[in-house]
Design brief:
three-stranded antiparallel sheet; globular; binds pyridoxal-5'-phosphate; about 10% strand; alpha/beta; 10 helices
């Protein structure tokens, strides 16, 4: 053990982090260009217009490599539109992981549908392709794939299963804009993708969302659901034409143009900023490669897959390599070294009353099964890998700039905690039940 790792700060040693962090974790990066773009909208009183949003959509589609991009007020709305676009309706089921932010799936209730949860792969935290097929029924309309906390989901087997059963694939790219799976960008595998662009996400422009697809009918159904001003004579899908003029969903989902103006500027610099983020985050993990108990949450280096903007960065915890040390105690030690670190992540959705007992719309039975002819609810214990996840992950700093000194000190905090695990075991309180939270990604 080297000198620097000898005494944990928790027990009176010097802190690993000594250098001021500066703006290394601040996000999004805001420049005069963002300010000017937003002020232009304000001065033109164009907040509720669509001229800037349409330019943003064009640029976004070109960047994403899809035929269409449609702007929304939130990612929640964009994903609801993606579901509606795929024809999800009364009694239909979508398959989604339970380990995610609620807006990957909860909107399905508003369409009269429901969700069936699948388990995740413990190393990627994305849906386990081996746990999908047996959940498909004749009511399954779509698989909702989440590229969770930046890690690309295993798209090859997922697409194969979906094609074999003739069901749609929706990607939730809220955590992974610009990420690659085997050299291809996330958001371009499924029939449609929806994503959040809210100000905590990796492509961050404020409250906004985007839906991207190559499918004209899905795109136009997205317009039909919540863009009445654009749902007019130029709609080409015959089944939609009789209904133009009013929004079919009864929603108004237009993007605020101060968001789209900022979005145009953020998108212009996004790829180059991601390159620096990846360099910084990979450097952090490279420094910890040989440390027991901690493991990088990232795809293999030569896989052609990447973490994109590395949203809400997490590390894998393997307490069994540290004598069974709890993630809670491990994180306490890291925090004392000067890096705010907590265990846990999104609480599994299937454990919340809204997916078990709550009757939202007065059906006289839980909304989860309101329009189903079977009870598809999933009790505690039914998704074992997912339920174990909160104890096996912890936060790591999300670096936006490459600085070897600062990143090195942060990595040392994790190394010190792991290398001194025997001392930590002496007063380990263990993990409480139910680590993590339903609102983990609220960003205040
Ligand atoms: C943030 C988020 C959303 C919802 O986006 P909003 O813009 O906040 O409505 C959907 N899915 C996931 C996985 C998210 O993290």
């Amino acid at each position: 053990m080297s000198e620097a790792t000898e005494t944990l700060a928790l027990y009176g040693g010097p802190k690993a982090v000594q250098t001021d962090r500066g703006d290394i974790i601040d996000w999004p990066i805001i420049t005069h260009e963002d300010e000017e773009a937003v002020l232009d909208v304000l001065h033109r009183r164009a907040m509720s217009g669509t001229d800037v949003t349409k330019l943003f959509e064009e640029e976004f589609a070109a960047w994403q490599g899809t035929e269409y991009a449609l702007g929304f007020s939130t990612g929640t709305a964009a994903l609801q539109a993606a579901m509606f676009g795929c024809g999800v309706g009364v009694g239909d089921e979508i398959i989604c992981q339970s380990l995610t932010y609620w807006a990957s799936c909860l909107q399905v209730y508003s369409l009269g549908g429901t969700v069936v949860f699948c388990d995740v792969d413990p190393d990627t935290m994305c849906m386990d392709p081996a746990d999908i097929e047996h959940r498909i029924t004749d009511r399954t309309k779509a698989i909702m794939v989440v590229h969770y906390v930046g890690h690309p989901a295993d798209m090859d087997p997922i697409m194969e299963i979906a094609r074999a059963h003739d069901i749609k694939v929706i990607e939730d790219v809220s955590h992974a804009q610009g990420g690659m799976y085997k050299g291809q960008m996330t958001g371009t595998f499924g029939d449609v993708a929806g994503m959040s662009l809210m100000s905590g996400k990796s492509l961050a422009v404020g409250e906004a969302g985007m839906m991207v697809t190559n499918d004209l009918e899905i795109h136009e159904r997205g317009i039909a659901l919540g863009h009445y001003g654009r749902f007019g004579a130029d709609i080409k899908t015959p089944s939609l034409q009789p209904h133009v003029g009013l929004p079919m969903g009864g929603y108004k989902y237009r993007m605020h143009q101060m968001s789209s103006a900022m979005g145009r500027v953020q998108l212009k610099y996004y790829d180059e900023r991601c390159v620096e983020i990846q360099k910084a985050m990979n450097y952090f993990w490279d420094l910890l490669e040989d440390v027991p108990g901690v493991k990088a949450h990232r795809p293999a280096k030569d896989s052609g897959s990447t973490m994109g903007g590395w949203y809400a960065a997490r590390g894998l915890y393997r307490g069994e390599e540290l004598g069974g040390l709890s993630a809670t105690k491990f994180c306490q030690a890291v925090t004392a070294e000067g890096v705010s670190c907590s265990p846990g992540i999104n609480k599994p959705l299937h454990l919340h009353p809204l997916f078990n007992t709550t009757d939202v719309y007065g059906h006289g039975k839980p909304t989860r099964i309101a329009n189903s002819d079977r009870d598809l609810r999933q009790p505690p214990g039914s998704l074992p890998v997912t339920e174990d996840i909160p104890k096996r992950y912890y936060a790591i700093p999300w670096f936006k700039h490459y600085d070897e000194q600062i990143i090195g000190e942060h990595a040392l905090a994790y190394r010190k905690a792991a290398e001194n695990y025997e001392r930590l075991l002496e007063d380990d309180p263990g993990d409480a039940e139910g680590l993590g939270g339903w609102h983990f990604f609220d960003h205040g």
